[in-house]
Design goal:
By secondary structure, the protein is α+β, with helices and mostly antiparallel strands. It is 37% helix and 25% strand. The protein contains 10 helices and 14 strands. The strands form 4 sheets. Strands 1, 5, 6, 7, 8 and 14 form a 6-stranded mixed beta sheet that branches. It has a 3-stranded antiparallel beta sheet with strand order 2-3-4. The protein is globular, with a radius of gyration of 20 Å. It starts with a helix and ends in a 19-residue tail after the last helix.
Length: 272
């Protein structure tokens, strides 16, 4: 009898499927950091943005499933996923080898290559190499930190950054830039395009991009139980890419169309 119960329990565990569980209970719990415009942000107490629109389009293929969405600080969002406090993370996460070793990424939802944000009219900063001797502002725990550290080592070894100031979120970094507490904010072009559109009298973007080609994706747990849910979201992203809806939403939120890999999860470049 005991052996039979153990066998039954093992089979049930082995066959557990998160997507089917979600359909059965009629609810999916998703974590988001709603402080990363224009991907996800709060407006009148409601989460809005590019990712949010993409999410709701994809969830049309889960009729009868209620969305419960949690707005959480970025620094603990992946830890909470590992602890199974929610089913999935829908927030713009840069694909890195370190993250891919622990979590299952969807197909990309956006480019994430870095450019610079500076105060309008600051002639000291005309290219990425002008970060030498400057104070940088960046979000604590972000993948961008690794890129700027690698850039300093490879390109600015004789005269590196004066200081890197770390903030809880990028909105704090932008405020520090506007007030002169930092000189420049390295960030992904899609994010900065939105910032400059809203505050063109204060900020401007410095191009070209620097560092490796980077992409944003969403993540689930890297286990057999979660595989079908991650694939469900990847398939949804690919569907929106093919029917043109993804480009439509890019124009809505960024003002330009993006070129990035589709139909697979690209291995990050330029990482050891």
């Amino acid at each position: 009898m005991v052996a039979s119960l153990l066998c039954t329990t093992f089979v049930h565990t082995a066959q557990a499927d998160l997507l089917e569980d979600i359909k059965a209970k009629g609810e999916i719990v998703i974590a988001t950091e709603a402080r990363y415009a224009p991907f996800e942000m709060l407006k009148d107490g409601k989460i809005v943005g590019y990712d949010e629109d993409v999410l709701h389009e994809i969830l049309k293929d889960l009729p009868g499933v209620k969305l419960t969405q949690l707005d959480l600080p970025f620094q603990g969002i992946l830890t909470g996923l590992s602890a199974k406090r929610y089913d999935f993370v829908v927030t713009a996460l840069t694909l890195t080898k370190k993250r891919m070793a622990k979590y299952a990424f969807t197909y990309p939802i956006s480019t994430a290559s870095l450019v610079l944000l500076k105060r309008k009219g600051d002639d000291r900063i005309k290219s990425p190499k002008d970060m030498a001797g400057k104070i940088l502002g960046i979000q604590r725990g972000s993948a961008q930190l690794k890129t700027i550290n690698a850039y300093e080592k490879a390109e600015l070894s004789k005269n590196g950054y004066k200081k890197i100031k770390k903030f809880t979120d990028y909105n704090e970094a932008y405020t520090a830039l506007a007030s002169g507490r930092v000189d420049v904010v390295p960030q992904a072009l899609p994010n900065l395009a939105s910032v400059v559109k809203e505050r063109s009298d204060i900020f401007e973007i410095v191009r070209p991009s620097f560092g490796p080609d980077l992409y944003y994706g969403w993540v689930g747990r890297k286990d057999a139980q979660s595989a079908s849910l991650v694939q469900f979201f990847s398939d949804g992203i690919e569907k929106l890419h093919k029917n043109g809806k993804l480009e439509e939403l890019q124009m809505k939120w960024f003002g330009f169309k993006m070129d990035f890999p589709t139909g697979f999860v690209p291995m990050p470049q330029g990482e050891k």
